[in-house]
Amino acid sequence: MTNNDILRRLRYALEIKDSKMIEIFKLSDHSIAKSDLIDLLKKEEEEGYVECSDVVMELFLDGLIIHKRGKREMMPGQVETQDSPLTNNVILKKLRIALKFREDDMLSTLKLAGMSLSKSELSALFRKEGQRHYKECGDQILRNFLKGLTTRLRD
């Protein structure tokens, strides 16, 4: 899945208007013009399409977390870690954090899209890469999660 597709699907599922998306980007200290946002939301075959980079996608997801949960307070001596590169696993994890979803919420959302995972398969998606039980999140899982999210929030 492309970042543009993920951005479009999230915007639809969460019913976010352009002005709110611009505010969400600002929460992660990123200023975006409405015309630039519209270009990011276009489909590949449309005139003026601009590819959404991993950096821009991560800024939106970080802003969404702040919008939904508030700014995280850093403890003295705590260093902010960077999740890089942006993978489907990181996107799924950031969405889980932003939406305050627990394991059951994640599984039921996937089930709404006709996909069933076990609890251990789901937890493997959130493990650190390189860990023995880590599982890569494929496009199908992320696509089904976004589809289930749309069903859950819009129906």
General description of the model:
The protein has helices spanning 3-13, 18-27, 34-41, 54-69, 88-99, 103-112, 119-125, 139-154. It is mainly α. It folds into two domains: 3-69; 88-154. α1 (3-13) packs parallel to α8 (139-154), α2 (18-27) packs across α4 (54-69) and α6 (103-112) crosses α8. The longest helix has 16 residues, at 54-69. It is globular and about 45 Å long. It starts with a helix and ends with a helix. The mean pLDDT is 93.
Low-confidence stretches: none
Strand content: under 5%
Q: How much helical structure, as a percent, in the residues?
A: 55-70%
Which structural class fits the helix and strand makeup? mainly alpha
Number of strands: 0
How big is the Rg?
A: 16 Å
- Please give the oligomerization state of what you see: single chain
As for the number of domains, it is: 2
**Topology pattern, helix = H, strand = E:** HHHHHHHH
The whole-number mean of residue pLDDT values reads: 93
Number of separate helices:
8
| Shape category | globular
